[in-house]
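Possible race condition, two jobs.
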Amino acid sequence: MEKKKERNSNLELLRIVSMILIIMHHYVVHGQFEWEMTTVNKIMLDILSLGGKLGVNCFVLITGYFMVQSKMNIKKLIKIMLEIVFYSTSIYIIFTCFNIIPFTFRGIINSIFAITQNAYWFGTTYVILYVLIPFINQSISSFNEKQHRYLCFTLVAIFSIIPTITTRNFEFSHVIWFVTLYYIAGYIRKYPNKYTETMVKNVKYSGMIILFMIITTIGFNLLTAVNPDAKYYITYFGIVNSLPLLILSITLFIVFKNMKLKQSKVKCLI
């Protein structure tokens, strides 16, 4: 009899934390708050919004960490696609029934074909990443450690370091970013070292980055009193590919990966 595979409770916990961060981000961004000046409430909401893309990055890192040593499952891919269509269509119908949005032919078509219409960017991007997994894994299997590390550094330099410093995103796309995160997670899984297997240092690094992001958010808020253009940079480091957020995503992932938790009997559905 085949032994049942145990679930990784610590990374399931990270999934839950990531979902909470994403919900808080959506609450702030889509909550239609209007502020004419900097207030404590506004600053708090700006800080809460920073976690949205952190949650996204963590989700992709978890996928890369597990899938780099697995095979793409067609049934799982179909299940993911059907779930996206189901929730997209259901939400659209509910919203039209309660007159929250008007019913249109284009609207129902977009909800049914949510993936190809990019109705929900994460869903579309994740499906594309999942389809690419066999090819990404094949490339990773052909690398030695030095080549894999060099590729990760090159991708991070092009799509994170330079854009963060220059505010220019080149030809950035979420697909490219998800692939970058996948390669990083794959490296962490294949080549464990003193940085990826320790928890205390990564807790410190995570704390330092969180403090930095909070301070810059407060600082840019206060700076708007002198220079109104500063408002465009209030949540600058909360962008999905910003260097501070990338470092925080990796260190937080490593923190949860190295937690010593008992196996949970409750399956995470997220």
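Job #2 (started ~2 s after job #1):
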Amino acid sequence: MNPPPLTALSDLDAQLRSAGYAVLDAASLSALSTVASAQLASWNSLWDALPSDRYLRDGGRYRRRRHGSFTVDGASVQAVPHRAHWQPVEYNALHGGIERWFEPLLQALTDDPAWARLLGALGGCASALQGRQRWFVEAHTFRIETGDEGIGRPTPEGAHRDGVDLVAVILVARRNVRGGETRVFDARGPQGLRFTLAEPWSVLLLDDARVIHETTPIQPLDPALPAQRDTLVLTYRAGAFQDAE
């Protein structure tokens, strides 16, 4: 596996502004959010309770997920009533243009005070990049698995932007996985890099206006055992949520 180019926490804001991306290891995410590594790891079992994604248009059965929405204004983090996830086709050619009603995030996650600290800290990164404002945040807990199909696709829509201001892709776990390489490319040209997130609770931060990203399919290292890749994806958008008009 090609390791990620890690950013020192002290260089985070400058790296995001200059390159459009940054990768923090788990210790740096813990320090940024003031959430202990053990507390983050205590959430891992919640990914075992993700229902199947019934909206996959490629016919696959390899993705499980939940979804929730929040506003972040400085240290204030507020949940909003459960709502559909919606993207325009310009940003998601495969699944855009439809309201996708996923099951809500578990309260064991969202009621934990550490959850608000994590969202607030990453909101601070968005404000450092775009200016202080209220952020409209969507949170997705994903499990990509191979199952009987033998392959799982973390980004079935391919290389894409999300139509937001900041994207945080947090790796929660990799089990019996090969593949799952992250690719980040300049939206205006061919420059890019490839690496594999492997450390639990490491995070990739993306300036969504400047870069496109994707993750390659996963397959099992041992075909006799299940392969799973768990992530937490948080998107921060100024002004409003993306909603069907």
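The longest strand covers residues 63-73.
Logs attached separately.
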